[in-house]
Amino acid sequence: MVSTVYEVKRPWYARLWILISAALVVLVVAAVVTLVVMARRARLAPPGRTIAGVAVGGLDERELRAAVESAVRARVEQPLTVRVTGTGQTFTFSPAASGVTLDVEATVRAGLAGSAAALPASLTVDSATLEAALAEHRRAAVDAVVKLAAPSPRLEAKGDTSFTATTAGVTRTAGRAGWTLDPATAAAALVPAIRSGLPEASVPSTPVAPGIKPANLAGVDQLIGTFTTHHPCCAPRVTNIHLIAKLVDGTVVAPGATFSLNDKVGERTRDKGFVPAPAIVDGELEDQLGGGVSQFSTTLFNAVWFAGLPSLEHQPHSKYISRYPPGREATLDWGNIDNVFRNDTEAPVVIRVKTTGTSVTVGLYGHTGDRRVVSETGPRNPVGAEGGFSIRVTRTVHDGDRKTGSATLRWTYEGLD
């Protein structure tokens, strides 16, 4: 029996559909393969990339994370040498101990993204901790120290003489400037250096000027006036001279202020230690509590005179006493006769006193620059029958080459002591 085989032919469009379907399958497979390859490529750091100076180019995500955890962390959390601008000073700064740490996840994400060749690390910054750590870095200023010696005798002439301001007796130990950091400003300068893995950074500073010790002696650097007078040893009046000297020694007269000897010492009383001693009262010599203090007053007056300072109130003795410069002397009487001067300079005036058994020296310290004071005493013009005389004393003040002032004292003595 013969079998008959029939060939069934598909329409042409059916065959076309099969071809199209096959092509679509191929395209889908190719697209999936392409996406997989691209995805794998996206998880690699771009070639040549560095993070905080550490080479990470071509690393996949796992390798990159390991590099960030080790080499990058070592870079950004290493101690920095911090230079303080304008001071020549440095200090070591530890980021991790100061609130600045590596943000690993943010750094890895950044390392796999973009195309930039060099990237900084990402950080976690505790601003409060960072600024507190920076605030600890400072150098305190060291104050200059001024010491004023008890004055040695330099001037005791009773007639024409002069005095020029000098540094004698002044010891000045130089101070040292300090500095501080503004924490917010310093932090803004440090964080970028840490992110870049740099071993050094610079931060701006604020200078702190040294002060003066004692603070009330700022500007005092000269012996501006001095004088010495002499007396016999061991008399009761010497006790009073030494006591008033002790009470006045170290007094500071501020710029523009006045000094009153009576106001400073107060009434001379036994309770204060003053003793009776001869004094001229109404032209006669008699014992008085505090007798002899006029010698200190005269010595102070002459120191003021040769400093070129204005004397606002003083009065010579009624009778001339030979141990004093004629016309250039000042008695003192509680509630009646005072000795007052003004500090017309821009620096404090400090009164220092030194006594011995036979002398008293007053030194005035302050600042008058290159001041020179010239004192000229005129002739004695006889007055009366008891040896009295009138006299004139002129003071000329020179600051450098300029004459800046003059004053004239006129006095008539009723007789001799």
TrEMBL record:
Query: What highest taxon heads this organism's lineage?
Result: Bacteria
Q: Where is the signal peptide?
A: none
Q: Which residues form a coiled coil?
A: none
Keyword Transmembrane listed? The answer is yes
Q: Does the keyword Transport apply?
A: no
Q: Which UniProt keywords apply?
A: Membrane, Transmembrane, Transmembrane helix
Where would you find the membrane-spanning parts of this chain? 12-39
One Pfam family assigned to this protein is VanW
PANTHER family given in the database record: EXPORTED PROTEIN, EXPORTED PROTEIN-RELATED
Record's protein name: VanW family protein
Write down the species: Paractinoplanes rhizophilus
Source taxonomy lineage?
Bacteria, Bacillati, Actinomycetota, Actinomycetes, Micromonosporales
